[in-house]
Design goal:
With about 300 residues, the chain is of the alpha/beta class. The protein is about 40% helix and about 15% strand. It has eleven helices and eleven strands. A hairpin with a 6-residue loop joins strand 9 and strand 10. It is globular and about 50 Å long. The structure holds NADP nicotinamide-adenine-dinucleotide phosphate. The site of NADP nicotinamide-adenine-dinucleotide phosphate has 26 residues, from helix 11. NADP nicotinamide-adenine-dinucleotide phosphate binds next to helix 11.
């Protein structure tokens, strides 16, 4: 009788538990391979180098840049951050990037977004030598991705593909719903999931702030990718129990804690975990994958002799 009850409880747990898609084991696997490549390059006296351009003192941008810098140094790569005041002119910035383009120490160049309003972000990104554009945001690199011949895949969508691959989440023939259509997450994600790439061949629906009602589409998703910057936008009544959820959002929400805030995603994790097939946590999900893929893109640039 007791045995039967234990069996019942175990089955119930299986039923209500969702798999939590942590990035840690994925990063561990990818970093082991990346370190071998870094070692091989170092035997040829090449140290993969990244230049990061940071404008102003946006606290979130400063944290992202610091984390990228630390990750590169820990993995025996070169990284330098160049910080400018908010009032730097677009021409000054373009001329600085031209110097970086010519500097052989840097195989990758990254301009931390967002930029101040008086600067046209796409003009600045397009001034980076496309062979050094390790963020993959240059028009040429986005075009190559959309044509099916990517040079550098934007790091966050690239990291999501690796997560899906590691956890063996099927995409072929599945319905992927992407909430958010930004140039850095939503649009490249559409391209990756809809083409016949690794973790592609899905049927993709793109939602945005004018989608009405959003729930109609999210309810149909086999794979749901939320990249909106709206804390807890996706709630348990908007999902089905078979869905695999990738939460890209990193939102700082003020609270009464000592720190004065906490970080949450675009998905109500508490409400949705336990009711879905799998879900990424925030933090510990997509965020670390983004930095990992930046390192991989920079190693690729170094190997290509950028
Ligand atoms: N984990 C990482 O490494 C990583 C990397 C990049 C970004 N992020 C995070 O991901 C989130 C999105 O970033 P992003 O740069 O893609 O943002 P973004 O450029 O602001 O784009 C947000 C997108 O979400 C859509 N949206 C906004 N409110 C919506 C709503 N109520 N319903 C449906 N769609 C809505 C917008 O629609 P419209 O186009 O109609 O305005 C837009 O397409 C942010 O929290 C950011 O911090 C995380």
């Amino acid at each position: 009788m007791i045995k039967k009850e234990i069996l019942l409880i175990n089955n119930l747990e299986k039923f209500i538990n969702s798999k939590i898609l942590y990035s840690k084991p994925v990063v561990e696997k990818l970093i082991a391979h990346a370190r071998k490549e870094i070692k091989q390059l170092s035997n040829q006296n090449i140290v993969p180098g990244l230049a990061v351009v940071l404008i102003g003192d946006n606290p979130a941008s400063k944290i992202y840049v610091r984390n990228k810098h630390k990750f590169f140094l820990t993995n025996h790569c070169h990284s330098e951050t160049f910080t400018f005041d908010l009032n730097i002119s677009q021409d000054e910035l373009l001329s600085f990037i031209e110097d970086l383009n010519q500097n052989n120490k840097f195989h990758g160049i990254l301009v931390q977004l967002p930029l101040p309003n008086h600067i046209d972000s796409q003009v600045v990104i397009n001034s980076i030598n496309p062979s050094k554009d390790v963020d993959g945001f240059h028009s040429e690199n986005l075009g190559k991705l959309f044509l099916g011949h990517p040079r550098f895949i934007p790091c966050t969508p690239y990291g999501i593909v690796e997560l899906l691959d590691y956890y063996d989440i099927e995409t072929t023939g599945k319905h992927a719903v992407i909430v958010g259509r930004s140039n850095i997450v939503g649009k490249p994600m559409v391209s990756l999931l809809s083409q016949s790439f690794k973790k592609g061949n899905a049927t993709v629906t793109v939602c945005h702030s004018k989608t009405n009602p959003l729930r109609k589409y999210t309810l149909q998703a086999d794979i749901l990718i939320a990249a909106t910057g709206v804390p807890n936008l996706i709630t348990s009544d908007m999902i089905n129990k078979h869905v695999n959820i990738i939460d890209v959002g990193i939102n700082r929400v003020e609270d009464d804690s000592e720190k004065g805030y906490h970080i949450c995603g675009d998905v109500d994790f508490k409400g949705c975990s336990g009711k879905v097939n799998s879900i990424t946590p925030v933090p510990g999900g997509v965020g670390p994958m983004t930095i990992m893929m930046l390192l991989i893109n920079t190693i690729k640039a170094a190997k290509n002799g950028s």
